[in-house]
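Budget justification, computational time. The allocation requested in the original proposal was used primarily to generate structure tokens for proteins on the priority list. As evidence of use, we reproduce two of the resulting records. The first is shown immediately below.
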Amino acid sequence: MSESPFGQPESGDHETQPARTPAEDVPVLDLELLPQVVSELASTSEQQAHRLADLTGTVSELGGTIATALDELESVRAFLLELHTNLADREDLSRLNQWTWVALDRDQAAQLWRELRWFVDHLVARYPLSSDVSIPPCWYRHTVAVDELTDLYAAWRMAYSSGDRPSEEMIAWRTRWMWPSLHTLHSHADWRECKAQRQHVEPTARQDPTDPDFDDFVEHYLATTPPEQRRDLPWQV
């Protein structure tokens, strides 16, 4: 049998050797070592069980910490809401808002007049009102009606311009504000003659402004008022 230059038999000069299977390369476990392997596996499993128990305890502690943190956050949120409410109340008391006619400048008044006219026209078109609560076209000449309708419009804005989520303010606007306001106007707007004659008639129920004796009265009142709060009251001050 001849050899190749690399020391291997030439092809065809010897019988083909059978291919080795992968199983022949797998090491065989000595049966004498099997108890040791099983013992090591058991020890490893026990260690993992201890680690899992420790991890479970840590997770439980974290859960308690998270619950405590959530309670503290809720307390902080409640405090901030209360603080915001108090600050908002102070702000509301410190300045007049955009719905107060006597506090508006020219541009603000022009804007509110445009919005209020749109609202009244929308109201009378949307709700065919009976004659006793109907709004005459000269409503803007009646200051009682202007203020009442302005407040009604502000409530409408709060009910329908505060986002897309449904709110009970929507139904409350009609049941608590619209219908009561219309009945209030029927009683106090003094526009019966306007409706009867279908044109504006100046209201007859006009009142005079405060008389000139007001300043003297207040001066006398303050002169007789103690400079400090009384301490002889039957309740604790």
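The second record produced under the same allocation is shown here.
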Amino acid sequence: MTTLEAAEELETTRAMVHKLLNNGSLLAVGRAGRLILIDSASVQRYKNRRSLMGRRWNAETAWAALKIIEGGIPRFMDSTARYRLKQRLKIMDPAELAAVVGTKDQVQRYRIAPADIPRAAGCLLPTGTTALNDSAVADRFGLAGARTDVLEGYLDTFRAAKLVNELSLVEDPAGNIIMHIVDDAFEGPCSPDAAIAVDLMESLNSRERAAGENMLEEIFTRWKEANGG
């Protein structure tokens, strides 16, 4: 669909559609003359996610929620705030959780030469499809492996800017490197399964998306059962 059609579907402006394309929320699939063509599935997915958002959380709360449902303690949040967050989590479902934690990072997509992927990979903490290159992770998600033509992972603002500069990356909403840029609220030596699950739920590949949904539901349900939710 065109940017005008996407704007009508989302009940917004064409300027906002361009902003969503630039930040990776919507996916451009090509051009017809001067018109940008947008993947209709990405429009529908954004529309569905937006309908669940309500008042979105800040990044710190989003990461705290993901850490809590995996049985961890977000020590960057005080005990009173943790208690309140747990009470809110108990009345949510997985789809609602996935929607509100969308603020955990800033997603930017770039086009990178295939030969530069190994070099860039060393700067990112794998998530989404790239995390599935680890056979243990792939087994937990019930998938055979990742798409090797896409690099997806977490890194901080400084490293992101440095990588873009060093490799002369070109911003591209349909690019093959997906950067999940995070701040100090992000913890841990590896991406937690809950975060990988949420990121997979943004995939346009139906198998990857379903695997993410199933994993998040499994983690969340297990936590609720253990905490009276």
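A brief technical remark on that second record: The mean pLDDT is 86.
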